[in-house]
Amino acid sequence: MGFLGSPSMASSSSSSSSSSSLSSASLYGAAFLLWVLVLNGAAVCNGGSTSPFVRKVEKSVDMPLDSDVFGVPPGYNAPQQVHITQGDHVGKAVIVSWVTQDEPGSDVVLYWSKNSEEKKEAKGKHLTYKFYNYTSGYIHHCTIRNLKFDTKYYYEVGIGQTVRRFWFVTPPEVGPDVPHTFGLIGDLGQTFDSNSTLTHYEHNPHKGQTLLFVGDLSYADHYPNYDNVRWDTWGRFTERSVAYQPWIWTAGNHEIDLAPEIGEKIPFKPYLCRYHTPNKASGSTSPLWYSIKRASAYIIVLSSYSAYAKYTPQYRWLEEELPKVNRSETPWLIVLMHSPWYNSYNYHYMEGETMRVMYEPWFVKYRVDVVFAGHVHAYERSERVSNIAYNIVNGLCTPVQDQSAPVYITIGDGGNIEGLAINMTEPQPKYSAFREASFGHAIFGIKNRTHAYYSWHRNQDGYAVEGDSLWFYNRYWHPIDESTSA
């Protein structure tokens, strides 16, 4: 620090008057103080921005059972809780699922393309399950295969009794410059805020074509004895969207439903019975982790609440899966999970840390573009950072900017009964680019192999308003820095 001087050095100047000596001392002292403040500011490592928007403090309340959004469709044994998801690895198949309450009814789905009146038939299967004192309706699953890409299809369920008709559009054929728009919702639940989130998403002018759901569906486990009636109400509530476009499912902690105190010892039972995934198409042994291709995206779904340590089935599958991704065919590599790895809220802080330690080097090696997670009931977007350099002795144990790393986005802000996470860590860490404690949804619109446009939308705003946005540059084809904070 000698280059700044000090009071003792100043007073030793041979021919200075006492006043000039005091003046020099004051000058050097002020400079020293400024230097200390700069150093302290650098040590704090303040990050990006915390939104100034403050949501009105309101308690989250589940909609009552007689709400119109939970209405049972009219007619004898009418199919309800209709939902679809991708049924193969490339987008030429759709899993159609629904529930009949009075009797099994038909397992058949009739379907036809917009340009053809010839109805085809696909036959599925049905199942039931018991959970404590609840018995489910008849849950049907039917996979429609060999569909044409980029085609609108109509389909009917309830054949022979009360027939209900819906439609969906298959994705374009897989290719490097194929545009596609994904919606993103997590931790939805079935509160009045949940209804606002889904309505906001439905009216977004960017029009998501496929929804990536990052876990925590019904929150039935919030009720005494894990009241599975709330699985039924959630299925009827979301039907207005998921019967018409595929939701890609990720399991969260509220899907575990493990309750040995009431005799329920099988984890994920209601979720696995109700929500099927195409895991076998990607060589996965579990519906809880799998992959799909859709347009120009390769989407990997992981399970935060299944074993993921070395040599476990999930670990072995991911180790073999990542090298299979051909970025010349599917440039955009997206990962979904429930528990975030980078989180600056005082909720679920570092719960994803052990999984991060296991898999983050792979995400950097294979240049994952973006990781979407939920769990924390708020919104946050990170910079491109990694924390993989640490080797016990080198002391490099904090996240650093890394242009081969993903952007991590927490979108657990769907509106569930547990309410918002409003308590943030301070100061905002450097890896955090933007955060806000509000409910909302997001849109990830792929334009081509190099560019995608991302936007987050809070429920309180008009449908076209963006609370946060970013142009993403593909890590494989266009890996330039798109940071939004200094």
From TrEMBL:
It catalyses: a phosphate monoester + H2O = an alcohol + phosphate. This is Purple acid phosphatase. Residues 181-379 form the Calcineurin-like phosphoesterase domain. One of its GO terms (molecular function) is metal ion binding. Pfam families: Metallophos, Metallophos_C, Pur_ac_phosph_N. Residues 405-462 form the Purple acid phosphatase C-terminal domain. CDD domains: MPP_PAPs. Keywords: Glycoprotein, Hydrolase, Iron, Metal-binding, Signal, Zinc.
